[in-house]
Amino acid sequence: MLTLDGISKTFSGIRGHTEAVRDVAFTVARGEFFSIIGPSGCGKTTLLDIVAGLTRPTAGEATIAGVPIKGPGPDRGVVFQDFALLPWLPVQDNIGFGLAIRRLPKDERRRRVAEHVSLVGLGGFEGSRPAQLSGGMKQRVAIARALVNDPEILLMDEPFGSLDALTRETMEQELLRIWSDAGATVVFVTHNIDEAIVLSDRIAVMSGRPGTVVDVVTVDLERPRSRGTLHTEEFIRLQSRLRDLVGGNLGADGS
Question: Which residues are CB-neighbours of 82 under 8 A, at least 6 positions away?
């Protein structure tokens, strides 16, 4: 489905050059929930931006079903950490914003928005503006806005990082339900090892800057999963292995 082959990215500025990622390679299967973890500054968001088509690699190539990624497209939906909602629009119009830009017929937009309002559990809040919503509800709007365009790949950049612990756990379970119902492929960036274990089929562990892929770990734990039910010996062994991989591959500056 998604292939990264020899991806490197160097940013240039007045202070010189910064190599964010180096020779990154992995594949993501159709329908897979694939997470990327690693120390701060290792290039996780840079990789997501490359897949989203928001930045071009300095070297290497990213492809979807064999087609090179040249820029943004409706086959990819992006969910950011800071929600990025339009504050003057109600929930239904935030969700349908991309459909309006694409000039889909109004009846089709209404139908698809209604389906996704239901999918993310926001029935009754269609007319509410972002300022009237909790953090978890805002993130549901952001997820619905990404999914309403029927993307093949959902890209998520630490979407629950700003939420409190209880809301975060709730949203993890909601995301698993939505992923199961929608059938999209998910590439998920997180700093949280437990979160990655709860959500993922496989986890790519990155080194410190410049980020490289140290290992891709398969999560062989039965679904459904939750934080409350995963503190088994298998979970603890996997958690320890991931911590060792991350901690043992910090960059020269400790990041």
Answer: 162
Domain housing 96? 76-150
User: What's the number of domains the chain is made of?
Assistant: 2
Quick one: CA dihedral 5, 51, 29, 156, positive or negative?
positive
Dist CA 212 CA 157 (whole Å): 18
List, for residues 144-168, the tens digit of each pLDDT value.
Answer: 898 888 889 999 999 888 788 888 8
Low-confidence spans in the chain with pLDDT less than 70:
248-255
- Which of 107, 127, 150 is at the close of a domain? 150
pLDDT for position 110: 92
Burial (CB < 10 A; 0-12, 13-18, 19+), residue 192, is middle
- CA nearest neighbour of 210 among 9, 6, 13, 26: 9
Order across the sheet with 2-13: list the strands: 16-28, 2-13, 59-64, 67-68
- Structural tokens at position 172: 């993890």
Report the pLDDT value the prediction gives residue 16, as an integer from 0 to 100.
78
Number of H helices, E strands in the chain: 8, 10
> Same domain, yes or no, for 157 and 248?
yes
187 and 132 share a domain? no
**Sequence letter at residue 247:** G
Domain boundary residue, one of 108, 124, 150: 150
What pLDDT, on a 0 to 100 scale, did the predictor assign at position 249?
62
Query: Is residue 61 domain-shared with residue 184, that is, in the same domain?
Result: yes
How many Å separate Cα 244 from the centre of its chain? 23
Predicted TM-score (pTM) of this structure = 0.88
Query: What tokens does 62 get?
Result: 């990213």
CATH number for 241: 3.40.50.300
